[in-house]
Design a protein that fits this description.
The complex is a heterodimer.
Chain A: H1 2-41, E1 49-53, H2 60-76, E2 79-82, H3 90-102, E3 107-110, H4 115-127, E4 131-135, E5 146-149, H5 153-168, E6 172-178, H6 184-200, E7 204-211, H7 216-229, E8 233-238, H8 243-253, E9 261-264, H9 268-277, E10 282-285, H10 288-303, E11 311-312, E12 321-324, E13 329-331, E14 336-338
Helix pairs in contact in A: 1-2, 2-10, 3-4, 5-6, 7-8
Chain B: H1 2-10, H2 14-28, H3 35-54, H4 61-86, H5 94-112, H6 116-141, H7 145-164, E1 186-187, E2 190-191, H8 192-210, H9 212-222, H10 224-229, H11 234-259, H12 272-282, H13 294-314, H14 319-345
Antiparallel strand pairs in B: 1-2
Helix pairs in contact in B: 3-13, 4-8, 4-9, 4-11, 4-12, 4-13, 5-6, 5-7, 5-11, 6-7, 6-11, 8-9, 12-13, 13-14
The chains are: A alpha/beta, B mainly alpha.
């Protein structure tokens, strides 16, 4: 018991320190450009309540988004609310959205677990006079007035393929270790990867695509099996945050660093050891904290009935965020390529 | 219930009954290896040969070494689960317990920089404590095991998430490489984790077969009331099976962290209870209690991983491995039912 409490206390302290640290960095980074933003937002009186409902609370990805949102709240003078279900459960998530409707927040932003079942709830929110946005994951058929997108499908798919091609010398065979078999975003990235490989890299072929679920151990074992099944395999892609370190671990365990190259969508901290030892060549992701910041900013624009421009100056780091009025997509920007050279810059 | 109350008064009877009980036990002792185990050995060998021919490298060390490492945690937890299921119980909280023990171990490694023995002992003790929680509630609470462990499963997951504190555990050092998937995790080509699992399984097999209290587990599973009337310490043995399982889950957590990546996330343990129960059932242990073998469970866990790896190495769609495991469970349960009917007709 003692053991557990100590462990937990340490974590809490570490977490608090991490949060404080990020908060500070973020604030310092953004103070100058925000001064103007706050000034123009200030006359509105009481701070706008911007609520974000992630797919799942308590995973590093959404916690990093929350950190960005909190930084935006400080900089923009809004009230940032953040709550999500403890499991990726659509019904529990809808319940949280309903409670925000009752609290009469100004804007609700959702990363829906199930876009279809979320649509009617978002309609209720709109009927109650609340502005509705989606972020991270879209609900295209809903009444959301804009979608804050982390990166375009083309951007991710091309980024992964280019990074792998660079490592493999634009030739050889590779395989993809994906996660959920029905995950629409992963499948759309894979479709782009297949197309880019066929069009741009004639000497590269994809031999197999397997699905490991959100299970690191299974992803590792499947990557091992793929290397055995295809002795000439020189590349592996880990399509999500659990399989990206998984495939790298498999290469490392098999002693094939430098023979089999891997890329993936992994969070910087989880990929750092593998990027350093060379079992992973690059990780393609986006700046998750910036996505959180942008989400909060977009929420404020909606709450103040400000239209999004074709190009938006959000802050010093995001000075030209594009908005496509036809698809109503606010795009964070091109994906981030994380390598051994820049991995230490990120704290999530 | 009134029969239960009368039990203490009949408790002194075992003393005179003891010698005859051992004699009877010896007479009715089943053959060392059951039919189901031979069938499993045959299937495993057949699959191994077929896959070695059909794929370029299934039979090679680079394939079977990591495969055995993957089997180890499931098989090890399966040894405990087999004992529980033999007594007519079940433990659906092993996934949650694995999460708690795993994240605690990972945190000890990262934050405290503990050594391998300390990590193993800490994980085992923590697992034992969680197992004791289950065991006490089930043995003395007299609520069905599935209800209790379903409750503790949620509780353990909550505790596990609290320890994770919304973060992954990053930068896990290579302290546990002795039990990992790499070169450091093997001696003479054999993964240490699998060898240890086999030793535990053989020990449990001998105990279940040749030790009086081991045989008592079967009696409890066959008819708990009769077992109690016969003077078997049902509650103590029940408590022991859950505690032993908890301890093995703790060691399995070490294996899982050792063979995992340098990052541990909240998905650890998720769904493992079903994988373990599947291995036990495929291994020929009757889900209704009273019959079963830990060797069958190890073979069951091995079979499931061979199928999964085989499907990937053959380039078949991933979901087929779930299908084959489902078929194997159906066949195993069917075979158990047929055996049960045959016994009743005798």
């Amino acid at each position: 018991m003692n053991l557990k409490t100590t462990g937990k206390a340490t974590t809490v302290v570490a977490l608090a320190a991490a949060l404080a640290l990020t908060g500070c960095t973020k604030k310092n980074d953004t103070t100058t450009p925000d001064a103007g933003g706050t000034a123009s937002g200030a006359p509105a009186g009481a701070p706008k309540k911007i609520a974000f409902v992630p797919k799942l609370q308590g995973i590093p990805y959404f916690e990093a988004m929350n950190t960005g949102g909190q930084a935006a709240a400080k900089a923009l003078g809004i009230q940032w609310l953040y709550q999500g279900p403890t499991t990726a459960d659509a019904a529990a998530q809808a319940q949280i959205v309903r409670s925000y409707i009752q609290q009469k927040v100004d804007t609700i932003i959702v990363a829906p677990n199930d876009p279809n079942s979320m649509a009617p709830v978002l309609q209720q929110a709109k009927d109650a006079g609340i502005k509705v946005l989606t972020s991270d994951t879209d609900a295209p058929t809903s009444v959301r007035q804009a979608f804050v997108s982390q990166a375009s499908t083309d951007g991710i798919g091309t980024g992964l393929t280019d990074a792998l091609a660079k490592a493999m010398g634009s030739k050889g065979t590779y395989a993809i270790v994906s996660c959920g078999e029905t995950a629409q975003n992963l499948n759309s990235w894979i479709a782009v990867q297949k197309k880019v490989t066929a069009d741009k890299y004639k000497d590269m072929t994809i031999v197999d695509t397997v699905y490991a679920g959100e299970d690191q151990g299974k992803a590792t074992q499947m990557a091992t099996d793929l290397m055995n099944a295809h002795p000439d395999l020189t590349g592996l892609v880990g399509e999500c945050t659990s399989s990206a370190p998984g495939v790298a671990q498999a290469v490392k365990d098999a002693g094939k660093i430098g023979k089999v190259f891997t890329v993936g969508l992994g969070t910087p901290k989880s990929m750092a050891p593998y990027l350093t030892d060379g079992s992973s060549s690059a990780s393609i992701l986006w700046d998750v904290q910036n996505l959180g910041y942008l989400t909060a900013w977009a929420g404020l624009q909606a709450a103040e009935n400000k239209d999004l421009q074709a190009t938006n100056n959000v802050n010093a780091q995001m000075s030209a965020v594009t908005y496509d009025s036809a698809s109503k997509v606010l795009l964070l920007g091109p994906p981030l390529v994380i390598t051994k050279d820049n991995v230490s810059q990120f704290n999530y | 219930m009134s029969t239960d109350v009368s039990t203490p008064s009949s408790a002194p009877t075992p003393e005179p009954a003891e010698p005859s009980a051992t004699k009877v036990a010896r007479r009715i002792l089943p053959s060392p290896v059951t039919g189901q185990e031979w069938v499993l050995v045959a299937i495993v060998v057949a699959l191994w040969i077929v896959l070695s021919i059909a794929t370029p490298a299934f039979g090679s060390a680079s394939s079977w070494q990591p495969l055995l490492s993957s089997v180890a945690p499931i098989a090890l937890m399966g040894v405990g689960m087999t004992m529980i299921i033999i007594t007519g119980g079940i433990d659906v909280s092993v996934g949650g317990a694995l999460m708690v023990a795993g994240v605690t171990t990972a945190k000890l490694l990262v934050d405290q920089g503990v050594s391998l023995p300390v990590a193993v002992v800490a994980a085992a003790v923590l697992g034992l404590v969680l197992g004791l929680v289950n065991g006490f509630l089930i043995a003395y609470g007299r609520v069905h095991a599935i209800i209790i462990t379903f409750g503790t499963a949620n509780l353990f997951q909550f505790v596990g998430r609290q320890i994770f504190a919304s973060q992954t555990v990053n930068g896990i050092p290579g302290t546990l490489d002795f039990f990992g998937r790499g070169e450091a995790g093997r001696t003479l080509g054999l993964p240490h984790s699998f060898v240890l699992t086999l030793l535990v399984a053989v020990g449990a097999w001998i105990w279940l077969r040749h030790n009086r209290s081991g045989r008592h587990l079967y009696a409890i599973g066959g008819d708990p009331t009769a077992a109690r009337l016969a003077g078997i310490q049902v509650q103590r043995l029940t408590l022991m099976t859950y505690a032993a399982t908890g301890l093995l889950v703790g060691i399995a957590a070490v294996f899982t962290v050792a063979s995992g990546t340098s990052t541990l996330d909240q998905t650890i343990g998720s769904g493992r209870e079903l994988a373990v129960i599947a291995a036990v059932v495929i291994g020929g242990t009757s889900i209704t209690g009273g019959r079963g073998s830990v060797l069958g469970t190890v073979l069951g866990a091995l079979l499931v991983q061979i199928v999964a790896s085989g499907v990937t190495q053959l380039g078949w769609p991933s979901q087929l491995s779930d299908f084959f495991v489902g078929v194997a469970i159906a066949i195993a349960v069917g075979a158990d039912l047929i055996r049960q009917r045959a016994r009743q007709q005798r």
